[in-house]
Amino acid sequence: MNLRNLVSTPESILAAFVLLATLWGTSFVAIEAGLHYFPPLLFAGVRYAIAGAVVLGVAAVASGRAMPRGRDEWLGVAVAGAFVIAAYHGLLYVAELRISGGVAAVVVSLAPVLTATFAALLLPNERLGPFEIGGFALGILGVIVIADPMEAGLGSAALFGVALAFAGAVAFSLGAVLLRPLRTDLPIAALQGWAMVSGAGLLFVGAALLGESPAAIVWNATSIVSLSYLTLLSGVVAFLIYFALLDEVGPTQLHLVGYAEPVVAAVGSWVLLGSLIEAEAILGFVAILAGFLVLERHEIAAYVGAEDALRTH
Question: Which of 32, 123, 197, 229 suits a disulfide with 52, CB 3.0-4.6 Å?
Answer without folding.
Answer: 197
